[in-house]
Design goal:
2 domains; 155 residues; Hypothetical Protein Ychn, Chain: A; homotrimer
């Protein structure tokens, strides 16, 4: 057996292992939001209720967390599906608060599947606020974000 | 020192490491549901509300995800406890939708502890739909499923 | 190349890897609650609703889990924020049940941020039950607990 070749094999195996091992960590460290290159905390806030109190709670939780972590160090997304999508309708009373959170880097996403269902039953597609990230299926998007390293919390 | 023996030790250690490392991956790849041998996505939908709108939402989320991932590639379980167990009562209005999801491979589980509590307070044990997986304690079952590789989402 | 030195380097790298790998496991095994040195299951129950039925559900879930796992083997924390903090007000009807769970080792935490908000809007700071763990921001505390190895469930 050639010792040097053996070392190379072992070293190669170690390198592969190290790459596999560090992958989940690396993934979380890659900026998911290009506007948040220094984020260390990745939080996905779920809103699937139409209840106005719940909508207020989600918005205030996001605001408090921006303050707690400092806006640059936290990547917060509020993802909506089911009755929760109404938060992002253009005529929602909370649009100023949504805009203020967006200005501080909070991302908002909306389930297209839910909007399709609303359109089918009401005959009209609701108008959304600007700069909302559309996703095909809300819960599938949640699974992707968790896979990217986000922690899901439903206030 | 015998170089060849040394290599074997290092290689053996690497193998052990590789086995340890791959274990969580293997777990998720083992079919939890024998009817879903090709599932890559493992989703546990929690229903602990009695609210009819919430029950509709959980059922429609499951239906949309089956379509999004293709039924063979996703293993979806709807787990119920507390007021959520009423979804699986034999006289629930949504029994056709439950049956349709079951026919597409969605699993439904129910907390026996909750049924015991209902029986104690009402004097009668509610009759359930067929083919429901009984679990002793709903939240303990959730912890087991998460340990098996399922992601928990509460619509 | 010196074969023996090479082995030491590889062995050293393997050791470092093993230490890195075992770290998350070690973390979960360190007793987070000194009163629960044998806990193997770490559960964080979230309460962010003011709804009395939801408060009852969270308390009964905690009670059932203590019985299911045996109190010594499970570390349960009920963490409250938003309207959920009312569970821990000194005048809450459920204070006996809270006290009983505490006596069995369940920990209760409350979001200071929510209490500040209530104080600002009502003019008075609500009085809390004794032995509650205060945390600055509820959802930030949840992220820390998840990082420590707790599983989050919101009944």
């Amino acid at each position: 057996m050639n010792a040097s070749l053996g070392f190379r094999k072992v070293a190669g195996a170690l390198m592969s292992l190290a790459i596999v091992l560090s992958a989940p960590g690396l993934r979380a460290e890659e900026p998911i939001n290009p506007d948040k290159p220094f984020a260390e905390t990745f939080l996905l806030l779920q809103l699937s209720d139409g209840d106005p109190e719940k909508q207020d709670l989600v918005l205030s939780v996001a605001g408090n967390l921006l303050e707690h972590y400092q806006p640059d160090l936290v990547d917060i997304e509020i993802t909506t599906f089911g009755p929760g999508v109404t938060l992002l309708f253009a005529d929602n009373d909370r649009r100023e608060r949504v805009a203020s959170l967006m200005a501080q880097g909070v991302r908002f996403s909306v389930c297209m599947n839910t909007l399709d269902t609303i359109e089918r039953s009401s005959g009209a597609r609701p108008e959304l606020l600007g700069d909302i990230l559309p996703v095909p299926v809300g819960v599938a998007h949640i699974l992707e974000r968790i896979d990217q390293g986000f922690v899901l919390v439903r206030p």
